[in-house]
Amino acid sequence: MIPSIVCIGGANIDRKLRSREALTMGSSNPAVQLEAFGGVARNVAENLARLGLPTRLITAVGDDAAGRALLAHAAEAGLSSDGSLLAPGEPTGSYTAVLDAGGQMLLALAAMPLADRLTPDFLRDCALPAEATLVLDLNLPAASIAALLARAREAGLAVIAVAVSEPKMARLPADLHGLQCLILNRGELRALLPGAADDEARLADLQRRGLRQIVVTAGGSGLLCSEAGQAAQQLPAPPVATIVDVTGAGDALAAGICASLTRLPLASACRVGLELAALTLQTTATVHPGLSPAWLAEHLEAHHP
């Protein structure tokens, strides 16, 4: 039986403005605008649902047209949003990314105050399956992250945390026991432990605090994965001939890891994640529309030890 996955965190409307030519700062630039449903927890959850995994999203949206459309889209993708918060009189969050002509992100602005409504009291009333993997994004309040880790330790649930930005790294608690895996980029790792001598010391510190597995992403350079008691491994990113849009690629990588980690060793799960990210880079969609259970089965088999 495939264990269910519960993703808890942010959901919003993504607005992507891509310049038609080289940007001129301080001036108006011609651009193309795209809108999609986004948010780290939401993106990870949609990837997982399209890969055929039983997935539930717990998030907060406004009781507005955007929020209702977001929840309807989740249902169409096979994603349950049972237990999510619908806030009357509040706008659904937004994430606006400015991309250069090559599709690389230059600047992003996130307006996601509703995630602060996912408090420990609210989440306490959300029933969780007896056997599940929890995927948390760090849009959640610090108190909620700590409470969910404590709840997972008591229930024996696996927890994977996905970073969202450098400023929000401070939301992780000092005690990381109960957290199976943390997925973040190099800048977020350094923001989490700014006083450490180097990245090797940072990884060792996190493992002393109870974290079992760490994945440090580096864009086109691949990633570093580290497991307590084992040597860290550097994995290259698959080649991508043409990058269409980077938005959502990091969340796809996290989803590939989450989908594989119960069935593959960490390094093999990371390879699945890298391949899912490479696929996502080749589409304007935040979540690749061609994902399927067959894609996951093929890649799990390819990377099975």
TrEMBL record:
The keyword Zinc does not apply. The keyword Kinase applies. It comes from Roseateles violae. PANTHER family: RIBOKINASE, SUGAR KINASE. InterPro entries: Carboh/pur_kinase_PfkB_CS (IPR002173), PfkB_dom (IPR011611), Ribokinase-like (IPR029056). GO terms for molecular function: kinase activity. This is Carbohydrate kinase family protein. Keywords: Kinase, Transferase. Residues 4-288 form the Carbohydrate kinase PfkB domain. Pfam families: PfkB. CDD domains: YeiC_kinase_like. It comes from the Bacteria. SUPFAM superfamilies: Ribokinase-like. The lineage of its organism: Bacteria, Pseudomonadati, Pseudomonadota, Betaproteobacteria, Burkholderiales.
